[in-house]
Amino acid sequence: MAARFNDDGVTALYQALNVLYIYAIDPAAFAEMPMGDVGRVAELAMTTLCGPGIGRGLSLVVGLGLIASVSAYLMSGSRVLAAMAADGAFFPLAGGWHASRGTPVGGVACLGFTASLLACSGSFLQLLDYTSTGLTAVSALVVAAIFPLRRRMSLAAGFRMPLYPLPPLLVLGLSTWTVAAVLIQPDKRLPALLSLGTIAAGIPLAGWLVRNKK
C-alpha cells in the first residue's frame, strides 16, 4: 500500500509540475525560443512566476538533484554490468568486485569510461537525444518481454495483467511514436540513429560472448 501511494504521489507531482510549466510559460513564445534555452524550462518558469533570484536558486537545486540521479544510475548500472559479465553476456572486466567493500569496481570503471567518451563526443542536447532514444527503445524491449514470458506455462500465474494485451501494446505504440518523432527531426536524427545502432550492435555482441563462454 505504501509503495502504491508513493508511485501515485510521484505521478501526481510530475503532472502538477508540467501543468505549472504550461501555466508559467506562453507556449507560442516557448516554441520560438532557441534550442539552448528550451532545456532550462524549470528556471524559465520560476523566473516568470517568482523573479530571477528564485529561478537561479531553483537551477542550483535541480543541479544537486541530478547528482543524486547520477549516483542512483551508477549504483544500479554497474551492478547490471556485473551481472551480465557473470552470465557471460558482457566483457569479464566488468565483473570485478572490490575484495573488502563489495562494490562492482569493474562495472563502475566501465560506466565511467563510457560516460567520459560520451561527454567529449557532442553537445548536451545531442547527448540528451542519444540517451533518451536508447532508454525509450530499451524500455520498449523490456515491456515486449511480457509476451514470451506469458507463453511459458510455468510463469503464467506470475504475469497477470488486466486488459491484456492492450497495456503493453499501448506502451509499445507510444514508444515507437516517440522514437519516430525524434528520427523525423533532422537535427536529432544522427544521435538517435547512433543510439539505436549501439543497441543493435550490443545484441549480437552479447550473444557471441555467451556462446564463447560456453
Estimate the helix proportion, in percent.
over 70%
Overall pLDDT, averaged? 82
Low-confidence stretches: none
Shape: globular
What is the count of helical runs? 10
Q: What distance separates the N and C termini?
A: 44 Å
For the secondary structure, the number of strands is 0
Structural class: mainly alpha
Structural Rg = 21 Å
Topology as H/E string? HHHHHHHHHH
Question: In percent, how much strand structure appears in the residues?
Answer: under 5%
Q: Mind summarizing the main beta sheet?
A: none
Care to describe what's here?
- This protein has 214 residues and is an all-alpha fold.
- Helix content is 78%, strand content 0%.
Per-chain topology:
Elements: H1 2-24, H2 27-31, H3 35-38, H4 41-50, H5 52-87, H6 105-119, H7 124-144, H8 146-151, H9 166-183, H10 186-213
Helix pairs in contact: 1-4, 4-5, 5-6, 7-9, 7-10
Summarize the entry for a quick read:
The chain has 214 residues and is an all-alpha fold. The chain has 10 helices and no strands.
Descriptive tags:
214 residues; mainly alpha; 0% strand
